[in-house]
What does this fold into?
Amino acid sequence: MVKGGIEGGKYRLLSNEEIKMIHETSLKILQQTGIKSENEEILSHFSKIGAEVDLGKRIIKFSPALVEDAINKASSKILLCGREEKNDLTLEGKKVYCGTGGAALNVLDLETGERRESRLKDIADIAKLVDALDNIHFYLRPVVAQDISPEFLDVNKYYAALSNTSKHVMGSAYTVESALKVISIAEEIAGGKEKLRERPIISFITSFMKSPLQLADPTVLVLMKIAEEGIPVALSTAPMAGSTSPVTLAGTLAQVNAEQLCGMVLVQSINPGTPVIYGAIPTIADMQTMNFLDGAIELGILAAGAAQLAQYYNFPHYAWGGLTDSKIPDIQAGYEKGMNLVMAALAGANYIHNAAGMLESTTTVAYEQYVIDNEIIGMAMRALQGIEVNEDTLAFKVINKVGPGGNYLAETHTVQHMRSELFFPKVSDRSLREEWVSKGSKDARERAKEIAKNILATHKPLSIPSEVDRKIKSSIKGLKNI
Amino acid sequence: MVDLNNVSESLQRGDAEKVEELVRGALGENLLPKDILENGLIKGMDIIGAKFKKNEVYVPEVLIAARAMHAGMSILRPKLAETGVKNIGTVAVGTVKGDLHDIGKNLVIMMLEGAGFEVIDLGIDVPVDKFVEAVTKYKLNVLGMSALLTTTMIQMQEVIKAISDAGLRDKVKIMIGGAPITQNYADQIGADGYSPDAASAVDKAKTFIA
It folds into this structure.
């Protein structure tokens, strides 16, 4: 196990000069091109806080001073808590955490291997699985519970997640009302309104912008409410280079950064210092189909670039990595995930979501994929740890003791350091062929399935106290027992 | 009063000095050497062995425990002989002629010692006749040969042939190992046993002395 929060940031794609050029282009976009909204309430809010609003064209333009002011008000450190303190995350600087993500519609069934619709039970079961997988640091609701009516979806997904993992839970809310209900559930578990603000065991993700440069008005209204409530929230914008942002990666970064800065201005104008996470997650479009691409190497490059921008402003960064366009946990899934995760992590992106379980351009998840990705994340985190250099690790004493022709097998130095210096995989097979054959010649996917089944059969996450559970179920309508 | 559980626990930690001290103390208190061996040293190694199979501890941890076992045995062995308790078996291990690689061989030796075998290290680049000579010289139960190179592994066949020619083939079990070696190759050249790694080499050797 490699704990979250290790510092990345040694991988630098952009020079300081280049970061500044991107920043200045973003300011120019906000000042000259502007952001569109069709909603009167939103337009009038921006007008009130000093943006230049053209009510006819429905365009909001921002002066650099307005943007700089929001940048200065934003918090540079955000605490996201688990129900157990050992699972707390401190998003700041170049600290890296990796977790799940998405709102996939399909699941590869663990028993049959068939693709089927995702259900509420999947949210609960995947939470339980993630709870036991050490290298997955947070739980962002991975699938849509299609067996639940839209009215009760948000409360059910949050409660199914919170009941089955003590790691931090993030999700979305479709309406202001359901956001408030979700917050009240979390307050009940945390022990009150203040307690939840001190130790936020939940947070929200809001896809508040439809690239290019147009506010997704219904979500913006939810975002404004969450900001008012002071619950941590991530802004998310995911333009595709070549279709919803310029095909050049620098242009895509400039645009997505402008979109994020608009979100920062909005949130800081509602509740200065409220915990908001910069969520630039750009990727590219497929030039053959214009579809959204997840496994592209450019996604990793853009994640690394966006991480540098976030660090430039001192914003905690909601990023992504560990994604693929493959339909099943196969070789393509392995290399695409490995490549783009390690790039985001080495760049020091703080909150790398979609890093576990996800397949098929974020439309499908697989239980065994969580187990495999737990291993990929572990390897990436080990890469971040790098090489520790001190007198003890330089090991002159033991080199001198063992001497020419000896060996280090049974040295105390070896025993003392092996567990911290070396990563111990759980899925990878390192045995000799004969042993591998004798165990059934299983590939990584088969081995991962066995681990997943074993966890689901035996793992017991920290449960929510029964009196709290009773209270929540009596006050919140439509909560299912699962 | 020496608690043999302490012997077992110190051994599991790889604390050779403590094991020596405790074994000396136990003998001083007239505990039976056989008891010290079985309820102290071997018990500790068995626990380590079980943890190793479950991937809870790794080779270096097994080896420092084995070294502690060896330290305890060096004190206990003469007393065991006096009371008529025999070694569990004697094994000689060497790397074949032309091959200088020894890390695998040394690992096997340490693991065998840890399991209570008396082990003779024949070294590296061992000529055929030295292997043959060892069989009678040390009254071996098992002879082990190691090779890393595909160009030197053929020496194993020569050794087996020479032992047969000397009329000693039924006196000793022959085990082989090394990166290029397979069970198939062992069968082909008439070796009695092959093991893919050091831990299973110990298990294999135990089957030959039962």
Remarks:
- Residues 12 and 22 of chain B are 14 Å apart (CA to CA).
